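Archive transcription. Copying these from loose printouts into the bound notebook so they stop getting lost. Printout 1 of 2:
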Amino acid sequence: MGRELQKKKNKSSLPKKRQNGPSKKKVLSNPIIAKHWNQKETLSQNYRRLGLTSRLNHATGGTEKTIALLGLNDPKSSRADTAADSTANRLNIVSKQPVQAVEIEEIEVERDPETGAILRITGQKEEKFNPLNDPLNELEDSEGEAEEWSGFAMVPERRENEAQNPVISELEEAARNGVRKAPRKQSEREGEWLERLVNKYGEDYGRMARDRKLNPMQQTESDIKKRVKKWKAAQSA
């Protein structure tokens, strides 16, 4: 019976579900991250190991339950699945508005001498001077001086007693020094194409751009001129 079922299953037109293997994609955008990337780990695992985060807010779906993450629930953290000193917690966007302390004011009242109940309010609340009836006048400070925005100048570069990740140090150093990508090199086929154009038209870039056979991609005159100049510089070097 089992053999017949196997035959029937093999003849079925339904596609067999196969488990996808590990991704073979290579990280080419950043050489520092590519150097420390582990192909056997997922994107979240790599980012967590490198001290980075793949999203600014918390995960919308399920998260991987690791020994390091289970039972954290750090009260100082805005996320239950990360510690307070983690990168994900620092970049987390908190949707709840922080609770603000209510300002306490004093006012004179008249109470019943027997029951102590408030009969009437004798004093008046001191109102701010607002001759133009500005609705935003109540939001200003009592001294009338607004707190100056200092941007991110008050954010510390590193927390106390925190071990700096070497990958983060390399990324910060590269960003500080303004390291640029290596210039694009012309391929061998592009060099052959430019050589045919130069042999036929010399330095007449207008005719090069109008040639439909040698310029099937309709590169502009200025673009061809720039490519030829770069090609000649590589030939003379």
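Printout 2 of 2:
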Amino acid sequence: GIRYRTDTQETSTQVEVSSRVFAAFIEWLGCGTGSYTAAIPGTAYQEPEENRRALLAGLFRGDGHIEFTNHSNAVVYDYGSVSKDLIDGMQFILHGLGIVPSYKTSQSEKSTRPAHFLRVSSSEQIAALKQLFLPEDRERIEQRLDSYDRTVSPTGHTADGGQATVPVRNIKTTEEPVNVYSLEVKDNHTFVTTDGLVVHNCFPKDTAAIRAAAREQGYEPSMLDAATEINDRQPNRLLSLLDSHVDITDERIAVLGLSFKPGTDDIRNSRAVPVIEGLNERNATVVAYDPVATENMRERFPDIEYADSPAAALDNAAAALVVTDWPEITGLDSEFDAMATPVVVDGRHAINRRDGIVYEGLTW
């Protein structure tokens, strides 16, 4: 019941659909409403490989280009768009198929926005995607592949089984408001989602595993090393902020949260451990609270005081250090009024700032 017409040219066929319902459906899917907003619909990433390949086939056949170079027997697949969302989505689908395309942008003087381009090269990748194209194109591709006298490794990335690594050529820092999502899963499991995205909620363990895997492949993960080093320095940073407000010698200091994250009694890799060690070195009187991890921490620090509630820990304290963002802790407010000096150093940005509290915030 949908009206359409086709316009066949020498090198292309255009299909024009006239239907408000169909247009609304395409927009609802998240495909965009024009060349600048075109995008891969989110549901496509969860489709079986056969359907994802069919989507790529439509894109490459419609607006893609097969380059049969004249100076060699090489074949290259190109795709360009003014929509970065579309190009990003295509890259994600290609990565899920084990294909690593090169990417570049360019902008002419008359253009208002840059154009984005993907290029697939190397004989292995060309062969892996040849079924996306029409029979006459596929036949020519196969002829070129048969004439290859040697296999040239792809440039720009290194493939190893189902993984690929690319070098970081430069890092550009920008400041802009963005949404940051904290995705946590039940217990301490690791999940591999559609197309190989690994999800876990343990920063130290995951980064340590990735760093070790990188070094096994002969690659130095400098960025991950730097992130880990900065993260490891944060407990000392928290203590330095505390020192800037209070001389804590012989003072009562509340440590709120002992587990390495909410929802567990596990204190391995908990930032509370170096924090308490630092407080002990400063001869502070430590009183700690955690809804479930107290007994585990008591084995590590048997000589400090443990409170039954956040309010009890805060009572007459000279300062409070927020280490774990338990709901029992993030909801605190009037309880801070019972402190001798209401200095709060928040390692999770979990406490609401308000008048009457000297607040310092950081995170790890």
